[in-house]
């Protein structure tokens, strides 16, 4: 891509800053749809005033880092719908809709017929799901090539040989009874969770668990505290449910609300105390007690996301926050996506006793859950000890990969850059100087064939966002880590 000249910069100034700010090259939305939506909405709402000359297609494409044909297509569509007027040699100008009543009327109808609701538009605008889910250094994805497929297939054959008609129909209740019992025994023994099988509800992933929490425990307009930086998936679900999101900063002990924030209690508090996502902090015992006491005193619900506690290298994690809860205010969430394989789509919620039945009925009412056969297979996988064996094996594999990545970072940068995250989980955070735009680094790395995610995208308050890169090592073989990071380092050095 050719460098932007001074003339190009002057031409680009014709485009209001809000267009450049809104366009997200990391978004899952197609580039032409995103640009069309931004320009069309800006024209309809007067943010792009009548008579404004839009930049030439070449200039806008270069400023946004997209193909020129994409901009040409968007301009042509806007002209077809009457939002802009274009002439050979004159450029492209925003139409004065007020002086064209027919077009204005059509615009009003289009406004009412907008295919997405405001909530839908907000969901897409703030989407955090990545398009790529494999390869160096994709964060949050486990090594699926080492999954014991033969054992799983053997168990699956046994389950299908004895399948009952009810297992092939719509599911009822809170999930497979044997799986709920196996999950209860597992989290009691490994995480110190206080529960019975009756408190376990099986879901189709943590996102569905969060959706049930938001629907059943909060109303639109209620406040939800979220860690800052924090898990984008929780933000997306709570935003879609109409909750007011309040980012809460972190300190050395974990979630750290200010005195002013504590004066107004939230309905929900979303935390990842065992291995904070994404920076890896461990919430102290003192802070855990404070959080539980505050929730009990104000009637708040604490949502504990224990997404990867199985993988800690060299030390044992603190027991789950739920195990300290004497007032039944904690909803404990776990998943098999990080420990087995993501497409399995089986997770679980451990609920206070008086909530379990309501969650199970709502799960059936809203989603008509199925997947009963896979749940039955998973129940046997746990009960016969295969799950524990697989976890032990993968813990050793991930520990070696973690160490190899740290070694590669130190070989390239010494102590110039700090690594956050501790010896746990499936990723580390490479901290960058604040002056470095981590989104630009991530894009350059992607062009070079290496995937990473900018730390800044995990912040709600963008001006205060730290700069860094999430480097996942779950999908990278140990011998591939050093050459892959060498590629990453080459892209990164251009920004340091």
TrEMBL record:
SUPFAM superfamilies tied to this protein: PLP-dependent transferases (SSF53383), Winged helix' DNA-binding domain (SSF46785)
Keywords: Aminotransferase, DNA-binding, Pyridoxal phosphate, Transcription, Transcription regulation, Transferase
Gene Ontology MF terms in the entry: transaminase activity
One Pfam family here: Aminotran_1_2
Bilayer-spanning residue ranges: none
Matching InterPro entries: Aminotransferase_I/II_large (IPR004839), HTH_trans_reg/aminotransferase (IPR051446), PyrdxlP-dep_Trfase (IPR015424), PyrdxlP-dep_Trfase_major (IPR015421), Tscrpt_reg_HTH_GntR (IPR000524), WH-like_DNA-bd_sf (IPR036388), WH_DNA-bd_sf (IPR036390)
Matching CDD domains: AAT_like, WHTH_GntR
Domain HTH gntR-type: 29-97
Source organism superkingdom: Bacteria
PANTHER family named in the record: HTH-TYPE TRANSCRIPTIONAL REGULATORY PROTEIN GABR (PTHR46577)
Family in the record: In the C-terminal section; belongs to the class-I pyridoxal-phosphate-dependent aminotransferase family.
Name of the protein in question: PLP-dependent aminotransferase family protein
